[in-house]
Structure formats: structure tokens, C-alpha cells
Amino acid sequence: MEPENAYRSGFAGIIGRPNVGKSTLLNNLMHRKLAIISEKPQTTRNKIRCVLTRDDAQIIFVDTPGFHKPKNALGERLNRAVRETLSEVDTVVFILDGTKTIGKGDMFIASELAELDTPAVAVLNKIDRLTPDQIEAQAAVAEKLGDFTGVIPVSAKTGENVHAVIESIVETLPEGPKYYPEDVFTDQPAAFIVAELIREKVLQLTREEVPHSVAVVVESIETREDRDLTDIETVIYVERDSQKGIIIGKGGRMLREIGTRARAEIEPLLGEKVFLKLQVAVEKDWAKSPEMLKRLGY
Fold first, then answer.
1. How many other CB atoms are there within 10 angstroms of residue 248's CB atom?
2. N or C: which end of the chain has fewer CB within 10 A?
3. Domain total for the chain?
4. Tens digit of pLDDT for each residue in 208-258?
């Protein structure tokens, strides 16, 4: 019999359709920004691991790309990453958009979860935009999707009821050790997070003008020996010359704005001033090329 004060630890996979608020919820669960956010679907491309350590438990959250019908090699890789995550985690957090009709995409994910023995909690997100009656109705529909440990209404945006998600996860975790030291919040290297923050700013500032055919590669991160300054060189890849022009902007204004906004979040992450060099390169149809995807780290 497991003692009451046993330390619990394990991996919690965050899953849901594109744009249901997975990354926003993850950042709120962690009380810090570690996953990028955009109104565009399929913003998350890699499995992002974030570590939440408490006195009684350690949760390693795995944020996954949105499950969707793939249209190219990139889409197929994103779905593969989701399935790999589901096979590896100790518990699943299934996020539903409470403002949308629960439909085929949600039912598809629920059917995938039904094939597993892994416990899952359903999270009804965006309740800050719903009335109490709407929340109750959507929760009732969500309950019928599968055998969940619970259906928890939350607002990832405001943080309402997010603590209940953490408690629900902890209850399903097995007894185990601390996998990471208490001061570790993610297992991703700094270069990965820097690249993601830059990509986020590109998506936010260009909106509909540049689709998801954007990738960012950090070529180098070097700290100067003579002063507290880190030099970062990056390349923003797009698929079309027209997209390159949009990202650079008239007189380079858009690229400077991307750099300014990204640097404001990169500097707190690294704990020192940053000199950020951004270049833009065209790699035609990179999202359709398995070789290019591998080169870009996808």
C-alpha cells in the first residue's frame, strides 16, 4: 500500500485540436512563459517539456502540436509527435475549446485516447467567454467523449481554476523520484526557446500575410568575454520571396520590430543583455521536404 506522503512524479501530455489554448494553459500552469502563443493554429511544432516541482510532486508537462489532418510532410511529423507523446506519458490533459462546438476533431482525439490505458482529464478551456449555462452544457457534452478522471472548466487566459488541473494530474501520477532539480523549468536548450520566441513574434506581427511556412534557426549563441552581452545569430526561413519582403518590411522596419519584441523576452530568459542578429532566407517549399525538415530540426 502506497504511503500517504509518497512523492509522486511523472509525465503529463497536453493534447487537443489546433488553437484550443494548449500553450497558453502550459504557460499558466508553469507561472512563466515557456511555450509560444499565436492565434494561428499549429503554432507548436515540437514536443516542449516543462517541469513543475512541488513539495509533494514533480510534473513534467509535454506540450504537443495540435492534432489535425496533415496536408504535407510537416503535418505528418506533427501528428507523429503527438502519438509518440501519448505512448510515453503517465497521464493526459485533453483540452477542449468551450467556445466551439465539440465536433469530429475532438471525437477523433477521444478515440485515440480510448485505445490507451493512460488516465486522462478533460479540460474545458476559455470559460471566461461563456455563461454558467454554456459551461454546464459544454461540460456535459465533454463527459460523453470518454472515460475521464474529470471534466474541469478553466480559463487558461485568466488562470481561473487552473490549480484544479494540477491537483487532478498529481492524483494520477505514480510514486517516483524528482527527475529534475528544483531550479529546472524546461529541458529545452536556450537556442530552442530563443528560436521559438522569434517565430512567435513573426507570427504575431505578420498575422495573415505570412502563413505557417516560417522556421527559425539559431546559428550561434556566444557570450562576450569582455562584457555581459550575448551575441545571437539567427536565420528566419520562409518559402517565398514575397514572404521575405513582408518579414523585412519597408526599410527593414518589420524585421527591427520583430527583433525588438523578441529581445525583450530573450534577455530575461538568459539573464543578460542580448545583441540579436536576424537574417531572412528563402527555402522554397521547405515544409514539404523531409530533408529540409530534418535540417531545421523537425
1. 18
2. N
3. 2
4. 677 667 889 899 999 888 888 999 999 999 988 999 999 999 999 999 999
